[in-house]
């Protein structure tokens, strides 16, 4: 059963007595280690006197999801794994193409990571580890943005604007990073994509892994900082069947990506 705003609930709307979805904020109280399952794979609270380290927080982040993605699509993508919560990340009221998925245990996360860069529809989806705080911050941003509060949430939630800097507030150089490109993309397609802007065609770098396979990212240098800012109007527009995300970058980041591609 699926709750509102992309939360997946256990049978009967609870997971071993713990409600998720509208009660996510309870997970943000003083004890960050909470039980999400009573089985052997469950996540157990940390015992400070026990002398052991807790297992990693069982959450992954997804990137590159289709804009029409639903929690059910994510459930199908991770078929066979024990999902506790799905949080679709919205920014300024629009789905960002990212999501957090909370699993019942760290072993489930290991299996989930094996599905990195598998397809959902016609898009490949990145699956990677993230920090507990990243998940909590996304939950807090959603609670703040939707204005959902109850007696379990004490005090004012963190400002959404402080958690997530809009791209137009970031520091720009002449370089933009492209993410979500088709693996088969070539430089002429990138030139065409930015056809209305002045780019340095000899300063386009399509990032590759050491084995030569494309990563789906590229770095493009523009004639000026202002031109790079103007080109951000192409953010979330498509090349082929894929929408492409744009981010401000730096010469150092572009050089590091180029160096990795040559290794």
UniProtKB/TrEMBL annotation:
The keyword Nucleus does not apply. The keyword RNA-binding applies. Keywords: Repeat, RNA-binding. SUPFAM superfamilies: RNA-binding domain, RBD (SSF54928). Residues 174-251 form the RRM domain. Transmembrane segments: none annotated. It comes from the Eukaryota. InterPro entries: ESRP, Nucleotide-bd_a/b_plait_sf, RBD_domain_sf, RRM_dom. PROSITE patterns: RRM (PS50102). Gene3D superfamilies: 3.30.70.330. One of its GO terms (molecular function) is RNA binding. This is Heterogeneous nuclear ribonucleoprotein H2-like isoform X1. It comes from Durio zibethinus. The lineage of its organism: Eukaryota, Viridiplantae, Streptophyta, Embryophyta, Tracheophyta.
